[in-house]
Design a protein that fits this description.
Helix content: 10-25%
Strand content: 15-25%
Strand order of the largest sheet: 4-1-19
CATH topology: L-arginine/glycine Amidinotransferase, Chain A
Distance between the termini: 34 Å
Order of helices and strands: EEEHEEEHEEHEHEEHEEEHEEEHEE
Number of strands: 19
Length: 377
């Protein structure tokens, strides 16, 4: 299947078992209508006290949306030139207030980061629970695409995790004060004292990495242990492994911390090292874990939730080819020395809308089958 072919009713539309096999079909997000949502229990502790995001909410400025969409459209073109079919989500009116019987909030978020919402495992596309109230309805942006895949592919599974209630019971009250030191914050995350409680299963799709038969899931601010247990029950033929990164003061999504590149090789954020007892699982199976190159920037772009370590939030096009943000020259040099073909992609204008290249995409189809990359358990 290439980007120029039209799918037929008998085609296999959905298939993706890992993060690196040859990409054939992908969803790339759009920035239209994206908002900075009002403060809510899930968001306050995740925004650094010195961030320009503090106290901000409302639609993002039109000129920033235009710049972000230009870079997203360019990413789509880069992938299409490599023979990848690209689909785009359908934005909602994100500026409208939303509510359930339990809560209401002043706006939604957006649909730039598909990776946060949709998890593809084999022939299944799973809508995550999400842990932000503002993102509760975000799955609707992807429903037209998932409906089409389901109609075209008789083996495609469209699943949705149980929608959480997200009452105040799902979050620890007064979790962090503004005057907490970084040392105190790091001690809390090292002790796995996270924002979310175990009231109900919670997970964001961007906390999950796919290694064939094995799923590696970050336990942190956006995914709790009940969410990891739910994934383990939902995928009974997979082995699900919980990991955490004590050096990450804001443990939100795994893909700027731990990035598999090809079988046997993983990039790890040197400031957020995988603990030795968890690292042993990979070493026992002859996987090499190397430190990522340092970012080229000392701060994120304005009004950006993410850290400078979006430098390692890359997209594997195939086991030998990688998309990297064009200003991250140290990261590109590291990949070049590792033998990868590097595709520089301008993307910093899109960062504030939900992350970098991995965040901005979610797989529909990659070549390959469900392999066992960890035979030694």
């Amino acid at each position: 299947m290439t980007g120029s072919e039209s799918p037929t009713a008998s085609q296999k539309i959905v298939n993706s078992w890992n993060e690196w096999d040859t990409l054939r079909h992908v969803i790339v997000g759009v920035a239209d209508g994206c908002c900075i949502p009002p403060s809510e229990p899930a968001s306050e502790p995740k925004i650094p006290t010195d961030s320009d995001m503090r106290g901000m909410h409302g639609p993002r400025p039109a000129e920033t949306v235009e710049k972000a969409n230009a870079q997203l459209d360019n990413l789509a073109r880069v992938l299409e030139e490599r023979g990848v079919k690209v689909d785009r989500p359908t934005p909602l009116n994100f500026s409208q207030a939303i509510a359930t019987p339990d809560w209401e909030t002043g706006s939604m978020f957006g649909c730039m980061p598909p990776r946060d919402v949709i998890l593809t495992v084999g022939n299944e596309m799973l809508e995550a629970t999400m842990s932000y109230r503002s993102r509760w309805f975000e799955y609707l942006c992807y429903r037209p695409l998932l409906k089409a895949y389901y109609e075209q592919d008789p083996n495609m599974r469209h699943e949705a995790a149980p929608k959480p209630r997200l009452t105040d019971a799902s979050y620890k009250k007064d979790y962090l004060s503004d005057d907490i030191t970084m040392e105190e914050r790091l001690r809390m995350v090292a002790a796995k004292d996270f924002l979310t409680t175990e009231e109900e299963p919670l997970f964001d799709a961007a906390d999950v990495l796919r290694f064939g038969r094995d799923l590696v899931v970050q336990h942190g601010f956006t995914t709790n242990l009940k969410g990891i247990d739910w994934l383990s029950r939902h995928f009974p033929n997979h082995r699900v492994h919980a990991v955490d990164f004590p050096g990450d003061a804001y443990p939100i999504h795994i893909d700027a911390t731990f990035t598999p590149l090809r079988p046997g090789l993983i990039l790890n954020n040197p400031e957020r090292r995988l603990p030795d007892e968890q690292r042993a699982f990979f070493h026992r199976n002859d996987w090499e874990i190397i430190d990522a190159a340092r970012p080229m920037h000392n701060s994120p772009p304005p009004l950006c939730y993410s850290s400078v370590w979006l430098s390692m939030n890359i997209l594997m096009v195939d086991p030998k080819t990688v998309c990297v943000e064009e200003t991250e020259t140290a990261q590109m040099e590291q990949f070049d020395k590792l033998g990868f073909e590097v595709l520089p992609v301008p993307f910093r204008d899109a960062y504030p809308f939900g992350g970098a290249l991995h965040c901005a995409t979610t797989d529909v189809y990659r070549d390959g089958d469900c392999e066992d990359y960890f035979p030694k358990g």
